[in-house]
């Protein structure tokens, strides 16, 4: 057992100990390797780092990354003095806003969750979740693309009974929608991704578990019902033995689909997130900033993602096929050329995604790419192809968006932020409500469109002529626009000029 006095004597870059979850670790040799830079660890040198560590690391990260001789033992609890936590004014205001949230039954659509989340999330969480890359053109285009597609409804079809259930990669789903992977759920809610798992289990919806979840993979699988289907999103590690172990463990635990992210050899520049790094740093951290070699400009996203292998290529696909029998889906395909390569590589599907606008800015929306990709896939085998699914994500907020994508040939649609903001605002109940909203919207829109089931959604039900035209007046999307936060320019430190 180590006393807090002893631990506090190791508070420099020459000898740096930290406490996480009541255990003491010597991280001196790890400072330069820490993906988030050494500065942030040094801020907690000789102290308890649990609160900062928890939301942005899987629980076992420190245990797995440090050799056992660096695990120094337990903190002697009799030496711990209770720190009275000073609650900042901003935090008090945030808590007051949380208390005044609208009751859940006043939430009518997915935009409402976002509006609540924007006000009640800690600044860092909102910055990480809402940010997109560069000038954030693509995140806005993701939304706008849906509004360039118009419906051509059919009438007099006896729509008393409508059914929007489906199968996704052979798994039953009560919605033609799955929960796409969004990392670091605990930044926004103490239960993190478990909110999604539990709600998805109750409502027969499929969750894609992110590699960078705040909860550990096993915690999430343990929270699922016995036969609840789950997918896994994979960031491929430079060390393929780690990837192999992870994938095979997932398969053993019953995961039904492996979504390999292929649009993130390097994470995009997300400036809202990057600017947050400078906010709230105390004086000690400012001194550290001046140390040579400390990276100052990386937000949460880049800090956690340096393990991702940029050398990933088509040559790796046979290897993935050799290590797992799970269906393999490439997440982040944009062109017909790559869609055909994926088909030829023998994977079971693709997600037309630009990562929620967080990667290559001014890349086209998944919905727009769907048209060209479906056209080319139709020339390469049966359509729809039972062995090759085409998913779309990005900007989906309404069931009408879902129906447009399905009519144009998508097998199902992924939603990221919509469900993320639902649990940040209202926990598991929020996610359940989001499913209910989508179900109600699907029922109404399918009736109005004249489609009794998803098979009856055909390309003739939409006019997508304007989709590939990047000019043209569409009505403003007021709900989206009111929560969209414009980027801002650099600020002078002292505001008096
Ligand atoms: C906060 C956040 C974190 C994300 N993390 C990941 C991730 O770790 N891996 C991944 O493949 N995609 C990630 N995505 C992308 C989503 O899986 C999905 O492609 C995107 O959110 C869809 O757009 P939408 O948010 O408009 O629905 C993330 C998206 C957000 C908003």
UniProtKB/TrEMBL annotation:
PANTHER family cross-referenced by the UniProt entry: L-LACTATE DEHYDROGENASE (CYTOCHROME), S -2-HYDROXY-ACID OXIDASE-RELATED
GO BP terms in the entry: lactate metabolic process
Complex and partners: Homotetramer.
Cross-referenced InterPro entries: Aldolase_TIM, Cyt_B5-like_heme/steroid-bd, Cyt_B5-like_heme/steroid_sf, Cyt_B5_heme-BS, FMN-dep_DH, FMN_HAD, FMN_hydac_DH_AS, L-MDH/L-LDH_FMN-bd
Record-listed E.C. numbers: 1.1.2.3
Residues annotated as domain Cytochrome b5 heme-binding: 1-76
Protein name: L-lactate dehydrogenase (cytochrome)
Record-annotated membrane-spanning stretches: none
PROSITE patterns according to UniProt: CYTOCHROME_B5_1 (PS00191), CYTOCHROME_B5_2 (PS50255), FMN_HYDROXY_ACID_DH_1 (PS00557), FMN_HYDROXY_ACID_DH_2 (PS51349)
Cellular component annotations (GO), alphabetically ordered: mitochondrial intermembrane space
Domain (FMN hydroxy acid dehydrogenase) ranges: 102-467
GO molecular function (one): heme binding
Protein family: In the C-terminal section; belongs to the FMN-dependent alpha-hydroxy acid dehydrogenase family.
Signal peptide (UniProt feature, chain positions): none
Organism encoding this protein: Lentinula detonsa
Cofactor dependence: FMN; heme b
Compartment list: Mitochondrion intermembrane space
Keywords assigned: Flavoprotein, FMN, Heme, Iron, Metal-binding, Mitochondrion, Oxidoreductase, Transit peptide, Transport
A Pfam family per the record: Cyt-b5
């Amino acid at each position: 057992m180590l006393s807090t006095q002893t631990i506090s004597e190791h508070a420099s870059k020459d000898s740096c100990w930290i406490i996480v979850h009541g255990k003491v670790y010597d991280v001196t040799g790890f400072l330069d390797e820490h993906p988030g830079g050494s500065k942030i660890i040094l801020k907690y040198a000789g102290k308890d780092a649990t609160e900062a560590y928890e939301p942005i690391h899987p629980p076992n990260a420190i245990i797995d990354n440090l050799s056992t001789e660096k695990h120094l033992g337990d903190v002697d609890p009799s030496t711990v003095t209770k720190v009275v936590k000073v609650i900042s004014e901003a935090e008090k205001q945030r808590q007051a806003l949380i208390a005044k949230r609208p009751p859940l039954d006043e939430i009518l659509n997915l935009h409402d969750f976002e509006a609540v989340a924007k006000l009640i999330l800690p600044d860092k969480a909102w910055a990480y979740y809402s940010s997109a890359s560069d000038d954030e053109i693509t995140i806005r285009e993701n939304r706008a693309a849906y509004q360039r597609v118009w419906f051509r409804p059919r009438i007099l079809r006896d729509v008393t009974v409508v059914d929007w259930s489906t199968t996704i990669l052979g798994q039953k789903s009560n919605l033609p929608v799955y929960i796409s992977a969004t990392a670091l759920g605990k930044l926004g809610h103490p239960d993190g991704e478990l909110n999604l798992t539990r709600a998805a289990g109750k409502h027969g919806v499929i969750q894609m578990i992110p590699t960078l979840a705040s909860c550990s993979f096993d915690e999430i699988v343990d929270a699922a019902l016995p036969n609840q289907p789950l997918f896994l999103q994979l960031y491929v590690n430079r060390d393929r033995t780690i990837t192999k172990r992870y994938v095979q463990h997932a398969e053993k635990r019953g995961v039904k689909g492996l979504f390999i992210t292929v649009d993130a050899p390097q994470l995009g520049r997300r400036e809202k997130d990057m600017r947050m790094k400078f906010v709230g740093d105390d004086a000690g951290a400012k001194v550290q900033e001046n140390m040579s070699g400390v990276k100052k400009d990386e937000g949460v996203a880049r800090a956690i993602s340096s393990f991702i292998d940029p050398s990933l290529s088509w040559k790796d696909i046979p290897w993935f096929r050799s290590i797992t029998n799970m269906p393999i889906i490439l997440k982040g395909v944009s062109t017909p050329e790559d869609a055909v390569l994926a088909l030829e590589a023998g994977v079971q599907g693709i997600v037309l995604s630009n990562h929620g606008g967080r990667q290559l800015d001014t890349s086209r929306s998944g919905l727009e790419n769907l048209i060209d990709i479906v056209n080319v896939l139709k020339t390469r085998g049966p359509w729809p192809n039972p062995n090759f699914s085409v998913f779309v994500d990005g900007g989906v907020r309404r069931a009408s968006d879902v129906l447009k994508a399905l009519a144009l040939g998508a097998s199902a649609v992924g939603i990221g932020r919509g469900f993320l903001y639902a649990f940040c605002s209202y926990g598991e109940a929020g996610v359940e409500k989001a499913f209910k909203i989508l179900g109600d919207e699907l029922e109404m829109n399918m009736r109005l469109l004249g489609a009794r089931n998803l098979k009856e959604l055909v390309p003739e039900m939409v006019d997508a002529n304007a989709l590939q035209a990047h000019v043209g007046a569409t009505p403003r999307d007021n709900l989206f626009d009111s929560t969209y936060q414009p980027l801002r320019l650099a600020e002078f430190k002292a505001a008096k000029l």
